[in-house]
Amino acid sequence: MRSPTPFAPEPGSPRLKRRRESPHDTFWTVGAGGPDAVYGERVLLRPDGVSLRLFEPGRSKLAAGLARGLAGPLPRPGERWLYLGAATGTTASHVADLVGPLGRVYAVEKSLRPFARLLATARRYPNLCPILGDARWTERHLGLIPPVAGVYADLAQPDQVGIVLANCAEFLRPEGALLLALKTASMGRDATPEEHARAAHRQLAATFDLADPIPLDPFHRRHFLLAGRAARGPGASGSSGPPLVPRVPERATSRPAGPRAGPRW
Amino acid sequence: MAVALRMFRAADRILFVGPTGPVGRSVRLDPEVAAALAGDGGGGVPGELLGELLRHRPAGPLAAADPVLEGTAAALGLDPPVGRAGRRAARARGWPVPSAAEREFYLRLGALRLRQALADPVETLLTLAREEERLERTSRREAAAAEQFLAGAEGGPAEYAERWARFREGLEAHAALLRDEVDRRARALLPNLSAVVGPRTAARLLARAGGVGPLVRMSSSRLQLLGSRRRPGAGRGPRHGLLLRAEGMEAVAPDRRGAYARSAAGLASIAVRMDAVDPTLRAERLLIRRARRLAALAREASR
């Protein structure tokens, strides 16, 4: 009988395992929230009691990024991460797996229905802190989110880059990590997805050392993953002087009541 | 179990501190409460006074949405019964509020905010209107796909046709209930706007704007194009968005619908401001103006 393929830890994140399989490698996260599946994914229970959850590229943009060759930065055990646009907690639960029981994931979600499911997921995870609120208004979460080692954003908003920059300025530690799942379909139809991705890359490159945008086709159409680290310490470091990360553009801060208030061309 | 939400007072202001730092901005105290607390050391306010402070919180919708006050309420909800010795020990340290574990704090605060948001009539109407719009779109797409399938397979498998008919029946019943509920709530919340453009269109405008406040602040030209998927440009831009479904639009000739959308947007922007001030029906003059405009457009078409 053929022995099962071993799980090899990824160098960037020890709680992320890669399994060599045909036709594609699969990625698994070491479960931090018990042995049960969160959203119906495959779960393997090892004899030592450790559960491994399949990280499906079709369900998660981070997993799709890994499948398309994302090298990092990735959440590491013990780190605190801020997750913007957590929705029902599908990817957030995997990020919580990656940071492990000693880490924390602060998951911000605005919509009520997904938040109700996120809350149910968070009851299982000892390290997932759900926050109902708009990621646009960073000052409303000041007391709830400490400085974090990384920000993961999956926001379907026209000004998603501005929102991410504002949150990084407020919460990201110096040389902190950024993973942005860019949904170009939300950014207007006056440019191609590639042009939107390049524009976002240019906007973020002033603050972050970014790798080239990773297209997430065929798993998620018209999506890109932007990954990198803050080039210099942003405002959350508590250092003197003005914040180095540019503030959110005027349009994003002056709009009074969330995403629907803006143009929807 | 301990609630990681503490409250500090400096002169006439209080500041709430969550597990990782201050929660929101500081809140100005009611002068009476500030006077009552004048004898306190200033470092902290005893936990028993939280309820007292909450009773003195500023009135009005802004206060109700204040995350600081929500956090305080959450702390009150979390406050577990602790023994007398525990209270005494905590008081001796200067801060007597018993607190829960950090994660428990987030869970309870999240649940509290969710409950508050779900109880908000505007938020409920927003959710229902979005659901109704989505359902309409989905059922239209589903119906087209099913009919295409049935036509392609020479009537389709009998079992599939039967299942589809049952599903469609259920879906239509659900959609009808949803529409009724949306209409009822829109009439209650936005009576004047509902009278001018119809309750469902009013609800959809509200959902697209994100609330009554943003809708009130919109200019009528913005309102006219709200929900349009095209961008206005130098050439022929869009003439209407959601207002294409406004009441009376069906009687207007297709080439004059943009003109009617412009008029309806003007009336709608007045109506929604009336609703924001006082949600009682007093749109008689707006309805007269609407009827006059419809009659003028009908005359233009008949020429």
Summarize the structure.
The complex is a heterodimer of chains A (265) and B (303). Chain A is an alpha/beta fold and 265 residues long.
Describe the model.
- The complex is a heterodimer of chains A (265) and B (303).
- By secondary structure, chain A is an alpha/beta fold.
- Chain A has six helices and 13 strands.
- In chain A, strands 6, 7, 8, 9, 10, 11, 12 and 13 form an eight-stranded mixed sheet that branches.
- Chain B contains 14 helices and three strands.
- A three-stranded antiparallel sheet of chain B has the order 1-2-3.
- In chain B, strand 1 and strand 2 form a beta hairpin.
- The longest helix of chain B is centred in the middle third of the chain and has 32 residues.
- Chain B is globular.
- The relative contact order of chain B is 0.08.
- About 18% of the residues of chain B have low confidence.
- At the A-B interface, helix 3 and strand 8 of A face helix 6, helix 10 and helix 11 of B.
Spans where pLDDT lies below 50 across 5 or more residues of chain A? 233-265
- What is the tally of beta strands of chain A? 13
- How is the quaternary structure best described? heterodimer
Overall mean pLDDT of chain A: 81
Give me the number of helical elements of chain A. Answer: 6
Measure the end-to-end span of chain B: 79 Å
Radius of gyration of chain A: 18 Å
Taking the alpha carbons of the first and last residues of chain A, their distance comes to 59 Å
Q: Name the beta content range of chain A.
A: 25-35%
Fraction in helix of chain A? 10-25%
Q: Strand fraction band of chain B?
A: under 5%
Shape of chain A: globular
Helix percentage of chain B:
55-70%
Largest inter-chain interface? A-B, 35 and 39 residues
**What string, H for helix and E for strand, traces the elements of chain B in order?**
EEEHHHHHHHHHHHHHH
| Shape estimate of chain B | globular
Helix/strand-derived category of chain B reads mainly alpha
- Low-pLDDT parts of chain B are 39-69, 72-87, 93-100
